[in-house]
């Protein structure tokens, strides 16, 4: 009896081992339920394989998105569906939906969201960042003051290149609230280096309460040494 049981279980154990080796944990963990589902639907062998692959892909996508959202460091959960376009008639919904398609990110282009406080720039930047993650892009969110302070600290510790390299990796870098608070004395120099490092390699989305013409007052004079 013991030999019969071992012979019966061996193929299952072997299948689970192969699924684990192939890192198909979604199929492995739900194998019995998925096979029962396929049997109830009278699926063919090919259709059953399609079902297994679909569930594995869905699980991997879900885990990838969860991890990417954590790494993005969004300060809140915001989605385009929750944005009140009627309350902000100056914002073109069609243009925002076009940005949500993330083609500009693929092309390494930059987007500026400009306007006074309270119009939803941060909401839109987070929501667009989330759409970028759903499309498969890596995203990092930061405020302008935190960004420049980090660059200044890295510069003082002689590891600016290391910091710039890390900030160049995300396909989309979101810099929020440029112009709201005073920046580090060397902000212009440091910010320019970041933009140069990311030029044509990664996209940036910047929100600001200042027009581009006023940005000269936002940044201090560049370093002389």
Topology, please?
Blueprint: H1 2-21, H2 25-40, H3 45-72, H4 93-100, H5 103-106, E1 110-114, H6 121-134, E2 139-143, H7 144-156, H8 160-168, E3 172-178, H9 187-198, E4 203-208, H10 215-218
CATH architecture of the largest domain: 3-Layer(aba) Sandwich
Return the domain count: 2
Give the strand order of the largest sheet, numbering strands 1, 2, ... along the chain.
1-4-3-2
Radius of gyration (CA) equals 24 Å
Q: Structural class, from secondary structure content?
A: alpha/beta
Uncertain segments of ≥5 residues (pLDDT<50)? 221-225
**Number of H- or I-type helical stretches:** 10
Percent of residues in helices? 55-70%
Mean of pLDDT: 88
According to CATH, the fold-level topology of the largest domain is Rossmann fold
Proportion of beta-strand residues: 5-15%
| Distance between the ends | 83 Å
CATH superfamily (homologous) name of the largest domain: P-loop containing nucleotide triphosphate hydrolases
Largest sheet: 4 strands, parallel
Globally, the shape reads: elongated
CATH class of the largest domain: Alpha Beta
Order of helices and strands: HHHHHEHEHHEHEH
Q: Tell how many strands the DSSP assignment holds.
A: 4
């Amino acid at each position: 009896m013991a030999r019969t049981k071992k012979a019966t279980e061996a193929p299952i154990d072997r299948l689970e081992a192969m699924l684990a080796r192939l890192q198909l944990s979604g199929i492995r963990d739900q194998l019995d339920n998925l096979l029962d589902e396929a049997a109830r639907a009278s699926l063919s062998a090919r259709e059953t394989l399609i079902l297994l692959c679909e569930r594995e892909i869905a699980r991997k996508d879900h885990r990838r998105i969860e991890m990417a959202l954590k790494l993005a460091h969004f300060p809140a959960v915001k989605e385009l569906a929750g944005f009140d376009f009627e309350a902000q008639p100056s914002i073109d919904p069609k243009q925002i939906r076009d940005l949500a398609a993330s083609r500009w990110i693929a092309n390494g282009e930059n987007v500026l969201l400009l306007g006074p406080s309270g119009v939803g720039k941060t909401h839109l930047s987070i929501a667009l960042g989330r759409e970028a993650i759903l499309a498969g892009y890596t995203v990092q969110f930061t405020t302008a003051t935190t960004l420049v302070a980090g660059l200044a600290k890295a510069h003082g510790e002689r590891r600016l290149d290391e910091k710039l390299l890390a900030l160049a990796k995300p396909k989309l870098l979101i810099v929020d609230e440029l112009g709201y608070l005073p920046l580090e004395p060397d902000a212009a120099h440091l910010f320019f280096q970041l933009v140069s490092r990311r030029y044509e390699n990664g996209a940036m989305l910047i929100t600001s309460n200042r027009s581009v013409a006023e940005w000269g007052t936002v940044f201090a004079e560049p370093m002389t040494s």
